[in-house]
Design brief:
alpha/beta, six-stranded parallel sheet, three-stranded parallel sheet, 18 helices, 45% helix, 13% strand, globular, binds uridine-5'-diphosphate-xylopyranose
Length: 455
């Protein structure tokens, strides 16, 4: 929304949230306190805020004044009831739709921006029909394709903008209104218009295809380790085929983030609902390989450390699901830490943007979901600490595990780090960002994903 405000000075954008605390943070004079860390975001907010970009908790007022309303609330995976662990929880979307229906007194275009399972627009439209004031609504789907860490750049230079609407004259008019907004900075040929359901489904499918590439290369990384091929060389060779292309072929400790797993699970659930079990199983395989990769990495650490990590200190570089973000949702770090802590390891994390509180919350949520006892949870949480430098994390550590690919990790003084670690000093590079040969020559026992190594 901040980018729309920045690119369209003649449009007033009001971002509303029921959380006073969150809105206060968005209005904070100190831009370091914005609730989200995203490169370039603070600059965009600084330029537009209080000119044509406003942050407020006055939800009803904003609904009444708006011509177009974007619903951009969270749609997490359900943790209860039917579809638990797979289907999207649409509680917040429904609450928004009901709120709009209740207070809107004039006609509006309602845009679903949250990633939603197919046919949600229809449900929103049904709720909106209940407006007591007789207002008319046109619901559009406008999924977001930005990636965290490069969100602002992605929004300025999108590969495409997708807008789905009804194929009625009113629907087409609404689609055009939204096209006109994006056309302020996106070339028309990149703005794709479709029917609502194609648009909703395209978002799930885009993420499924991207995640599938990562799981494909990660599956091959296991084969490379077993056979002596190097996954990076394989990825480069394969990616040179212009039909395949080089992007999203970087083997890793496993993909994370708020979208890939959630969207694939949604797709799987959707297929199951339509009785398409083979299709559901096919896509579920992408998640299975991702889980396998995270486990494999944790197992590799344990196996190299003479089959026990009990009482050993393991340093984690990175907790976020990738570099340049403080988002930790579904981060591989959570699952690798879970496995190692359960085996009695102590973990010390350095992440440039993630707080210890967040790390503990991530693990606590996972363990509570699994039904572990409060005492067990407390005991394990006490064994995960964080420090404020990459070197400090390694002091007296038996092993270093690189989980996220923050640039700052590449320029560390590894000679010094080596002297501070217990010997033999192990490095497990889950992101393939360190210089393997340099590490070996310093004396480390180094391991990287997708490359055969001698223990
Ligand atoms: C993704 C999609 O890219 C974006 O289009 C969509 O709108 C939301 O979901 P995001 O989750 O922010 O964006 O990050 P992305 O850069 O796609 O990375 C997702 C995960 O895959 C990260 O954990 C990343 O480290 C991992 N990844 C990515 C790899 O392991 N290898 C790769 O080659 C690329």
């Amino acid at each position: 929304m901040a980018v729309i405000a920045r690119q369209c000075p003649n449009i007033t954008v009001t971002v509303v949230d029921i959380s006073e605390e969150r809105i206060a943070a968005w209005n904070d004079a100190n831009l370091d306190n914005l609730p989200i860390y995203e490169p370039g975001l603070a600059e965009v907010v600084a330029k537009a805020r209080d000119k044509n970009l406003f942050f407020s908790t006055e939800v009803d007022k904003a609904i009444q004044e708006a011509d177009i309303i974007f619903i951009a609330v969270n749609t997490p995976t359900k943790t209860y009831g039917k579809g638990k662990g797979m289907a999207a929880d649409l509680t917040y979307v429904e609450q928004c739709a009901r709120n709009i229906a209740e207070v809107a007194k004039s006609d509006k275009i309602v845009v679903e921006k949250s990633t939603l399972p197919v046919r949600t627009a229809e449900a929103i439209q049904t709720i909106l029909k209940q407006s007591p004031h007789g207002a008319q609504f046109e619901v559009l789907s406008n999924p977001e394709f930005l990636a965290e860490g490069t969100a602002i750049e992605d929004l300025f230079k999108s590969d495409r903008v997708l807008i789905g609407g009804r194929t009625t004259p009113k629907g087409e008019q609404a689609v055009q209104a939204l096209v006109d907004i994006y056309a302020n900075w996106i070339p028309r040929e990149k703005i794709v218009t479709t029917n609502v359901w194609s648009s909703e489904l395209s978002k799930l499918v885009s993420n499924a295809f991207l995640a599938q590439r990562i799981s494909s290369i990660n599956s091959i990384s296991a084969l490379c380790e077993a056979t002596g091929a190097d996954v990076e060389e394989v990825a480069t060779a394969v990616g040179k085929d212009s039909r395949i292309g080089p992007k999203f072929l970087k083997a890793s400790v496993g993909f994370g983030g708020s979208c890939f797993q959630k969207d694939i699970l949604n797709l799987v659930y959707l297929c199951q609902q339509y009785g398409l079990d083979e299709v559901a199983d096919y896509w579920k395989g992408v998640i299975d390989i991702n889980d396998y990769q995270k486990n494999r990495f944790a197992n590799r650490i344990q196996q190299a450390l003479f089959n026990t990590v009990n009482g050993k200190k393991i340093s984690f570089w990175g907790w976020a699901f990738k570099k340049d973000t403080n988002d930790t949702r579904e981060s591989a770090a959570i699952y690798v830490a879970d496995q190692l802590l359960s085996e009695g390891a102590e973990i010390v994390v350095y992440d440039p943007k993630v707080t210890l509180e967040r790390m503990h919350m991530d693990l606590q949520t996972l363990w509570e979901y699994r039904g572990e006892t409060e005492t067990d949870i407390k005991g394990k949480l006490a064994k995960l600490q964080s420090v404020d430098s990459a070197v400090a994390a390694c002091t007296k550590a038996h092993a270093l595990a690189v989980i996220a690919e923050w640039d700052v990790f590449q320029t560390q003084d590894f000679e010094t780090i080596y002297t501070k670690m217990e010997k033999p000093a192990f490095v497990f590079d889950g992101r393939k960002i360190l210089d393997y040969n340099q590490l070996q020559s310093i004396g480390f026992t180094a391991y990287e994903i997708g490359k055969a190594t001698e223990d």
